[in-house]
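Input structure tokens:
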């Protein structure tokens, strides 16, 4: 490993943080070291920075940290980690070297920090009043076909339920379509812009071979990072925009991740479905959205057992309330004075 290093100085340095009435001292910077073409940070240093305590594993290839306010588990050579109860997919696999685990600098900044420090998202003008809900597909675009259902019908049903729940919370909510009509991707994004959306949430149902099932939520991949648009996490962007250049939505990288985390966690807690994680992609409606945006895949219509659940109105109601609940959790983060926001959504 090359000895040259740099500080992650664009992580806001804080000398002390208050968690549940206890003050933890923390270093003001993290050092990143270059290995190959990637800068990495020692996981032990990251744990110290965020006050995560000692590694419960005590082995070279795995690490586990858990406190009353945060949880972090990872394994060498894997691209997925467990972060505060939700699987998150990284830009680069965890590296084991010199008796330590290392995480890519970009993943500290673009995955860990927004979830462990959501209070930093609260800035002047960062409010949530208007939300656009995007029921995927419609009209001639039926989406995934299950044995007894079409995706376009299920997404609209769930979206209308989310609209009802959020409107009941005092928010302005708009749907990109309210009937079985075809809406071009660019028109969906433009609709959100015209309505002045503070958040954009696209609702879908998944397809896959074999016994694939579970829930996953996407947000835009950071500039320079590959997509995790398939379960193997091999980085293919073929269906998601093609390159690793910065896109319009990258200006919202941090709130994207926190919104995705809030919605994914709410869905998992409500449905007990398999956690396929918070993933990254450059889907059109994500990369061109001019506000924090996510796309959630609420289950597999190609799974016989999961389709049977989705066909039930009460289950779609559960999905809708969970999506709305995750959005409200995100909103509360921005509404709460920064000094009162801890490092995480408290572990339950």
């Amino acid at each position: 490993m090359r000895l040259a290093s740099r500080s992650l100085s664009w992580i806001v340095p804080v000398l002390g943080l208050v968690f549940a009435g206890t003050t933890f001292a923390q270093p003001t910077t993290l050092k990143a070291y270059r290995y190959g073409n990637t800068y990495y940070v020692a996981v032990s240093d990251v744990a110290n920075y965020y006050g995560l305590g000692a590694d419960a594993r005590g082995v070279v290839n795995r690490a586990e940290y858990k406190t009353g306010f945060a949880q972090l588990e990872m394994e060498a050579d894997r691209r997925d980690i467990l972060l505060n109860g939700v699987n998150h997919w990284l830009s680069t696999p965890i590296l084991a070297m010199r008796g330590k685990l290392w995480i890519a600098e970009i993943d500290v900044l673009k995955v860990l920090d927004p979830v462990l420090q959501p209070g930093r998202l609260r800035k002047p003008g960062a409010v949530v009043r208007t939300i656009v809900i995007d029921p995927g597909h419609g009209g001639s675009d039926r989406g995934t076909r299950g044995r007894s259902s079409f995706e376009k019908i299920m997404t609209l049903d769930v979206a209308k339920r989310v609209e009802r729940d959020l409107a009941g919370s005092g928010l302005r909510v708009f749907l990109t379509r309210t009937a079985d009509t075809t809406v071009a991707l660019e028109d969906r994004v433009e609709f959100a812009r015209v309505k002045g959306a503070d958040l954009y949430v696209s609702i879908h149902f998944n397809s896959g071979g074999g016994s694939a099932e579970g829930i996953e939520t996407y947000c835009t991949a950071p500039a320079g990072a590959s997509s995790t648009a398939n379960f193997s996490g091999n980085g293919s962007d073929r269906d998601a925009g093609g390159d690793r250049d910065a896109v319009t939505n990258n200006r919202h990288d941090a709130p994207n991740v926190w919104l995705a985390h809030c919605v994914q966690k709410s869905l998992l807690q409500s449905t007990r479905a398999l956690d396929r994680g918070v993933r990254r992609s450059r889907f059109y409606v994500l990369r061109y959205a001019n506000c924090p945006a996510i796309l959630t895949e609420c289950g597999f219509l190609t799974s016989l057992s999961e389709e049977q659940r989705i066909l039930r109105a009460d289950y779609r109601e559960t999905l809708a309330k969970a999506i709305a609940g995750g959005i409200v959790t995100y909103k509360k983060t921005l509404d709460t004075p920064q000094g009162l926001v801890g490092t995480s959504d408290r572990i339950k």
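The longest helix spans residues 313-335. Helices lie at 43-49, 105-116, 151-167, 185-194, 253-271, 284-287, 304-310, 313-335.
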